[in-house]
Automatic annotation (TrEMBL):
<dbReference type="InterPro" id="IPR027038">
    <property type="entry name" value="RanGap"/>
</dbReference>
<dbReference type="InterPro" id="IPR001611">
    <property type="entry name" value="Leu-rich_rpt"/>
</dbReference>
<dbReference type="InterPro" id="IPR032675">
    <property type="entry name" value="LRR_dom_sf"/>
</dbReference>
<dbReference type="GO" id="GO:0005096">
    <property type="term" value="F:GTPase activator activity"/>
</dbReference>
<dbReference type="Pfam" id="PF13516">
    <property type="entry name" value="LRR_6"/>
</dbReference>
<dbReference type="GO" id="GO:0006913">
    <property type="term" value="P:nucleocytoplasmic transport"/>
</dbReference>
<dbReference type="GO" id="GO:0005634">
    <property type="term" value="C:nucleus"/>
</dbReference>
<dbReference type="GO" id="GO:0005829">
    <property type="term" value="C:cytosol"/>
</dbReference>
<dbReference type="GO" id="GO:0031267">
    <property type="term" value="F:small GTPase binding"/>
</dbReference>
<dbReference type="GO" id="GO:0048471">
    <property type="term" value="C:perinuclear region of cytoplasm"/>
</dbReference>
<protein>
    <submittedName>
        <fullName>Uncharacterized protein</fullName>
    </submittedName>
</protein>
<keyword id="KW-0343">GTPase activation</keyword>
<keyword id="KW-0677">Repeat</keyword>
<keyword id="KW-0433">Leucine-rich repeat</keyword>
Amino acid sequence: EDMCMEAEGEEDPTESARWARDNSDVVWCQTAEGLLQAVADGNLKVEVGAIPEGEAEQLLQAVQQVAPHIKALSLTGCHLDDAAIVRLGNVLAASQIEEIGVSNNVDVSAAAWGEFWAKLPQTVVKWDHGDNNFPDEVLPKLVVAMGKGRVQELFLDGNELADISPLLAVVAESPNLTELDIGDNNVGDEHVTALAHLLPGSNLSTLVLGRNPLTDASAQVLAYALPRSKITILHLDSTQITDRTLWILSEVLPDTVLEELHVDQTKVKDEGVLRFCQALPGSTVRLLDASDNGLSETTIAAIEAALPTDVSME
């Protein structure tokens, strides 16, 4: 069985992959040997996952060998403890790595994460720390580290974040930041509203807020900010939003650059989705996901009839 494979065709990586699933230029490996082979073969973007517990030492030795050569490294579900995380930072400190991910790696202390981030080079522009059970107190340490460079993409989905105040400065002061994923956390209306107020001055184009306890109270503020923003992809799935948010989105839609809207598994109803669909002609929207909302078959048929031919409905 190949321990390293390109993420394309039928050789899809396992479910645990985060980068290799969507990026064909990222090679998926499941062993330290696979990592060494992938880089020897000339691959500069690698993702390692599904490493058995107890093999972190071999993995870190392999990373140390390839660190001077690679541009992107994602380690997902690799069972790194405090000592291993700090050592990883030391290994990467002198590298020119541009994209770093350590995800699905719980039970690491905030202090160890802080040490790790402090070691990373200023070349890092993509940070992926999803599914790490981060509490709020790690954010200031991460923000300090990101402030040294030019962050472009930040993934913090699947954590336990509620107070994202430290991130607001990153959004406001990072002209290169185009993608922010804070989905599947505990972020409520107060902080989403504060974030919405910053959108007109930012270059964010992808914003993922799904699976958070937010309601119309903040989603409406967000909707009104869209015409003055660069948001093209917006995820509000699995939130508490209702038709009230969709009504405002329908009003402002012609003045936005929105291309994808995800409102699946929310509290929107037939009327709101229908009204939104009536606003689609003349908009830039190409994908609407309103699935799992209990819409009637009549509404779904009406939506499909109302959709411009170049818009797909999920």
